[in-house]
Amino acid sequence: MIIIGRCSIIQAQDLNFSQYYNAPLLVNPANTGFNPDYDYRVGGNYRNQWASVGIPYKTMSIWLDTKLFKDRFENGWMGIGGSIIKDVAGSGNLQSTGGYLSVAYHQMIGNNSLLSAGLSGGLVAKRVDYTKLSFDNQWNGQFFDVSIPPNEPFAYSQTGYFDLQAGLNYALFASDNAYFNIGASVMHVNRPSESFFAPSVSNSQLNMRFTYFANASIKILDEWILNPNIYISKMGNAKEVLLGLNARRDLGGNGNQQMIWGLYYRSNDAAIPLIGFQKNDIAITINYDATISTLKNLNGSRGAYELSIVKHGLFSNSSGRSVKCPSVSF
Fold first, then answer.
1. The domain spanning residue 101 has which CATH number?
2. How many domains does the structure of the chain reveal?
3. 99 occurs within a structural domain
4. Digit-coded pLDDT (tens) for 77-97
5. How confident is the model at residue 4 (pLDDT cuts 50, 70, 90)?
6. Which in 27, 184, 188, 286 has the greatest CB count within 10 A?
């Protein structure tokens, strides 16, 4: 939520990526350490949006997580991780930077399902450059004159708050050829206040953001793994629905080299093709959000592009995973 102008409010969702499954800690803290085949993951994401209709919106993140105590719990383990996300938006150079730490516990239920619960907390800082903005009071009848005082009740050019998130995941390892996962999370559990105005003018609290997703991996033949996904997020009056699938094709017969293709659809907004390549434990994926909403009349359907890089790995002294989850792999 960004508050601009005299007592007016624009509502929107938090920062997010089309490749939400490649930014797991930003989606749900229960994803922390949810990596049964490996000891750790590290990833980065970059999104450039709406460059064709003005100053682009740029969103960047880095994240990592690892497993803990995998040999100390009966059929379970803990995960710990951290993430940093930064966004620069619009002509006012509105910058948002957040740093989060997250922890989760994962417990096998029987031989083929897993229940996970996680929490994360972090600090968010935002700032804006008012000198780069124009306000209605600065209209002199012909143009916006920045020498005229804006007479807006801004009290700060910077603001910050502590943010708390919680989430649950359930995974079903149906067989070596089929895996299913559903999750739900709540962000802004503590309803932090975010405002550039004095408390006497506005002390607006962020709405809680509810996020749901369902993923699957299904191996067909010996060379293909299909990964259908659906993602739903709701914050206040804003709602996002993203659905589609990506497919991985084994190129070498041992899974060390894979091509990735996919197509997604964001409801009333964009068609999203993607392509990627994985070699050993590093995957690089690029997608393009082609606008299909009425905004396409302004941007010529040029919406956003996004890049993700994810690496999985084992520690040199690791003897492999202690909890044996069936996995869908080449």
1. 2.40.160.40
2. 1
3. yes
4. 999 999 999 998 766 678 899
5. very low
6. 27
